[in-house]
């Protein structure tokens, strides 16, 4: 029987080739974000002479808002029409992004490029997440999410550092963004030539699910409504995801400018900016699998509290090495949270509407980038960057305490043991 005709079989080992191909594809997805972790805030300040933190953070807010909305439709459309077409559409949207940034005559063009990048990321990253969940089935979900997010954020780190190094050597534009053209073209070719549809795997799992043949899949409106407050698992995960990306958006947009004003070189800024996603990426290789053994809730709570401590350190400490240490702590805290939240959504949602649930969660999570741009920008403009970081640190710790109080354990083994 040919590979194309072979019936689907759940499991990481049974689908190793497609799984690792999707890991590679997601590395290119992450590399596209890495293009923007170091250089664009410096372009805003040094080329376009912007002084308002709110205006500079607008590129993060634009990215987050569009990505959040696109996430929602990516999941729903993937459940209805298949995952692969959504992935390909996302890569097509990515193609013009680096070209626009290289040639942008004003800050408005940078924002427009981020609107496209947000839509692209919403389609590509959401779809690679859902496709891996489809392939592995229920037993290695945390490990799968750890591998997926590790690949993406290690690529973010490598791209962030490399663009910073290129900016130091050649200037802020256009050379650092030549990489983006290569990333987008390679990601599209890999996806079009080698990635296969995974919706049949989700349909197989749905047939085996205890509630298969029961109630019909809930509507999108119902899932969104339940995820606001009524469903304790979905609501807890959604708010934690939002706050996690709220602090990431503030770190993304404000920290390069904060470090530059304090006298760090572009290379040092790039190293601190890259350390956070590098630790985040590497540690997820452990934390995702750990959540399969210990459960989801404890890692989420601990990770949010650690993020709060690290952001407080960013505000109160001074100097390259202390900030580098705080960046390590922020990466560790985020690694505890990021794949675990995705795995918890996979636990709580039935296979037949999992894509929609993941999309709804990512709507909340990436909406945090837009919220962070507003809160961080206003706070930085009125109170200063250190005060903005302290405010975000308190919000992050409070989110972790809310999870501790309200979220039930979603992992079936851990919840039975408890």
UniProtKB/TrEMBL annotation:
Domain Major facilitator superfamily (MFS) profile: 18-411
Signal peptide: none
InterPro entries: MFS, MFS_dom, MFS_trans_sf, MFS_Transporters, Sugar_transporter_CS
Lipid bilayer topology: Multi-pass membrane protein
UniProt source species: Deinococcus radiotolerans
PANTHER family per record: INTEGRAL MEMBRANE TRANSPORT PROTEIN (PTHR23517:SF3), RESISTANCE PROTEIN MDTM, PUTATIVE-RELATED-RELATED (PTHR23517)
Xref: Pfam families: MFS_1
Keywords: Cell membrane, Membrane, Transmembrane, Transmembrane helix, Transport
Transmembrane segments: 19-35, 55-74, 86-110, 150-168, 177-195, 257-286, 298-317, 323-342, 386-405
Subcellular location: Cell membrane
The keyword Transmembrane helix is annotated on this UniProt entry: yes
CDD domains: MFS_MdtG_SLC18_like (cd17325)
Identification of the protein by name: MFS transporter
